[in-house]
Amino acid sequence: MAKISLSITLVILLCGLTLASRTKILPLSNTTTALAPELNDGVCSSLVKTQGYACEEHLVTTKDGYVLNMQRILPRGKPGNSIPVVLQHGLFMDGVTWLLLPPSQSLAFLLADNGFDVWIANSRGTKYSYQHTSFSSNSSDYWNWSWDELVAYDLPATFEYVHDQTRQKLHYVGHSQGTLVALAAFSKDQQLDKLRSAALLCPIAYVGQMTSQVAKKAADNFIAETLYKLGVFEFSLKGGSVVKFLKDMCAGTSIDCTNLFTSFTGFTHLPI
Which part of the chain is the Partial AB-hydrolase lipase domain (predicted)? Predict the structure, then answer.
């Protein structure tokens, strides 16, 4: 079973996951590409065009059938041969994370203002990449994947699509989980022929020194495997099962949940 373990999920709420060396790198066939229909609640309509930027919705189908939605923010000031930049979000997030601040502070808008061709990725299972060519999102088959598949399928499909559309090598910016999949791929010499540079924000490689009691208890008790067998396939921070799990964890005398952020990530001791 390739389901993401709840222990890993908890640890990398912001920064933390497992070793990249165990990633499987699989061959990728040609991806299906298309312009996505414009939706009133889509990223382009609701968050980009409202700020005065030209934006396109794109669909990318991975080799294993997941349909990924990407947003393309067209560059300002330097039309024509603009260099593409791919922005990849972290865990529990989607592409909207790059657009939450005002245009003068959001990386996606700042890049477009400086003439870059901006492509925002949305990983499988997120709000804007919820489709599959065969499986329903309510089925166990749909959720039978881990970050291994993000490396083997999602990242190559994204890189290939942007490269084919622009005919240029691209810059890559990843946050948290977005750094994990990049490091795993690059360590196997994957996608390097399409890459100009990579900026890794809050990079993930090892979690052997994690201090989060929540994550440790989840790992010791195989919480994810239990939930999967019970038919709870999707881990959502707003879901009833997750809320109950957190309440039960916080009831333990060894866990201080007055600060949930620290409960997830553990304490960070910085030098004075």
Answer: 45-100
